[in-house]
Structures are given as structure tokens and as C-alpha cells.
Specification:
mainly beta, seven-stranded antiparallel β-sheet, disordered N terminus
């Protein structure tokens, strides 16, 4: 808002201002507060002199003009940048976190695949447990019934410590984020390949099986945390080590589409003539740390 100059103020109120009197005037004389002659000069217009009974109306109209002008300028030059409010019908991201105290069929759904054997899915003692049979290869997947829109940050705890020692076998287990039609699936695994040590594995597949990208990471503990983050369309796979999150792999192929998450366990017994072995992986404390949006589908 344009400030009135001192000369303009003196022109409107020649009596001067002081605290404690009407409008700060140094005199309570009406002619001092509302002078009998007010000269209003507007650029481009000839000066006009007004006197008599209309002086109060002229002063009020002048002040109204300046207030309207100030309000208009404030809208143009100082627009509001209040943060966008989340629609009232959309639940906060954190509501989709799941401690797996019970199985929630409104959040998760088992998907029956073409495995010759069917594995087990259960929620026991605060853990989501996926278990494969001992005599046939098996693939178990638990899909979310919600999808992420835009960026997101999720994590889960995993545990292979029971039974205390797994036989030598081949398996992948972990979190997968995929597009709704499975055109792209970003797989963040803890894996074993006929050795005692586990390791982290990252894969990007097209249409479920066609591999576009893969990475074999460092040694993995039998229990720990995995985290998947999408930021600016780029997806990263992280784990928690010594109290700090460390990147296992940053996928080179970006994805900005809606994505759902799934828990997965897959065993194989086709290598080197070995029989499939039973594997149990437990997941807990699935957390949605942040997200741009979630829709239920």
C-alpha cells in the first residue's frame, strides 16, 4: 500500500496529530480534525475546493478510496501461499501403516499364482508370516488394496531367525512395488543362493518376468529392515545398518505411475538338482512414512 506523505497528512489534518485525541489530533476542535477547506489533488485532474457541510463525507470517501486501493494491491502483489489442504475424503498416509496385530482384509489380499504348491499366510504374535512348503517350489504374494500416487516412503521389518538355521536353498523375499498392470515391478529382496549368507538383491522386471535391471548387493542380516522410497519418480532400495539408512540400489528406470506394494516370498529347487526347502519369513511394522497421496483400489 502506498504511504501518505507527511505533506499529504498535513493537508488533510493541518492541526497535527497527538495521542489521546480523536484521530491523534492535537486539538479537539472540529475544524482542526475536519478542516473547513480540504484540497484534493489527483494526477490528471484539476484541483477542486470543497467547503461547508460536505467536508465529512469527502474525508470518508477519500479514506475509503485509499483502503479499497490498498486491498486491491495486496491481492495482486501479495497472493496467499497457504499450503494445499489434503481433501477431507482422503485418509492420511500414516493410516495405511500396519503393525500386523491382526490381519486386515480391507488392506491386503492374497493373490493365487500358478505355483504347483500353495504356501501359507498368517498373522501370529504381531508378525505377518509367509511360509513355503518343503517339497515343491512356491511363490506367495500379499498385495495391498491401496495404491500410491506420486512420491512415497515405506518400510518394513523382516526376520528369518525362526527356525534358527535355514537349509541351503534358493529364495527371494521382501517388498515389491509395481504398476497396476504389472508393466513394471521394482523388487527389493533379501535373497539366498545355496549359501549360508543372505544378500540383498534388486530387480526391475517388465510384465512380471522380463528382467530390465538387476543388482546384487551386500551381505544381509537374518533380521533387519528394508525401505523403498520414490522421490521425483526415482525409486531407491535401502536398509538400516548401525542406526543409519544406507542405499542398496537406486533404480535407473523412473516411474511416475500409480503403484501398489506387495510382500513376496518365492522359493526354487530347480538348481543343481536340489529339492525345494521350506522357508518362513516374518514381516512386521509396515510403515508409510510419507506419501503424496493414496487411493484405495
Amino acid at each position: 500500500m502506498r504511504q501518505l506523505s507527511q505533506n499529504s497528512l498535513l493537508r488533510l489534518c493541518p492541526g497535527g496529530f497527538s495521542a489521546g485525541s480523536p484521530l491523534g489530533s492535537s486539538s479537539t476542535n472540529a475544524d482542526d480534525v475536519y478542516p473547513s477547506r480540504v484540497q484534493i489533488e489527483r494526477p490528471g485532474f484539476p484541483s477542486k475546493h470543497f467547503s461547508g457541510n460536505g467536508r465529512r463525507k469527502i474525508w470518508v470517501k477519500g479514506m475509503l478510496f485509499f483502503w479499497v486501493l490498498a486491498a486491491s494491491l495486496s491481492i495482486v502483489f501479495f497472493p496467499s501461499y497457504a499450503p494445499a489442504q489434503q481433501p477431507s475424503h482422503q485418509k492420511p498416509c500414516s493410516e495405511y501403516s500396519d503393525p500386523f496385530d491382526t490381519y486386515n482384509p480391507e488392506r491386503w489380499s492374497e493373490v493365487l499364482l500358478l505355483s504347483r504348491a500353495r504356501g501359507g499366510i498368517s498373522v501370529e504374535n504381531g508378525w505377518l508370516a509367509l511360509t513355503t512348503p518343503k517339497d515343491q517350489p512356491c511363490e506367495i504374494q500379499l498385495y495391498s488394496l491401496f495404491c500410491f500416487v506420486g512420491d512415497f516412503d515405506i518400510q518394513a521389518q523382516y526376520d528369518f531367525s525362526s527356525p534358527p538355521k535355514l537349509p541351503l536353498c534358493r529364495f527371494n523375499a521382501g517388498l515389491v512395488v509395481q504398476t497396476l498392470g504389472d508393466e513394471k515391478s521394482y523388487k527389493c529382496y533379501i535373497a539366498a543362493a545355496l549359501k549360508e549368507d543372505f544378500f540383498f538383491r534388486a530387480r526391475l522386471d517388465a510384465s512380471g518376468e522380463k528382467n530390465l535391471e538387476k543388482h546384487k548387493g551386500r551381505r544381509a542380516s537374518h533380521e533387519g529392515f528394508i525401505r523403498v522410497v520414490r522421490k521425483g519418480g526415482r525409486i531407491s532400495f535401502l536398509t538400516l545398518e548401525a542406526g543409519e539408512w544406507r542405499v542398496i540400489h537406486g533404480f535407473s528406470e523412473p516411474c511416475n505411475e500409480k503403484m501398489r506394494v506387495r510382500f513376496k516370498l518365492q522359493t526354487s529347487g530347480e538348481d543343481e538338482g536340489m529339492q525345494p526347502c521350506p522357508v518362513t519369513v516374518k514381516f512386521d511394522n509396515f510403515k508409510v512414512n510419507a506419501c503424496d497421496g493414496i487411493v484405495e483400489e
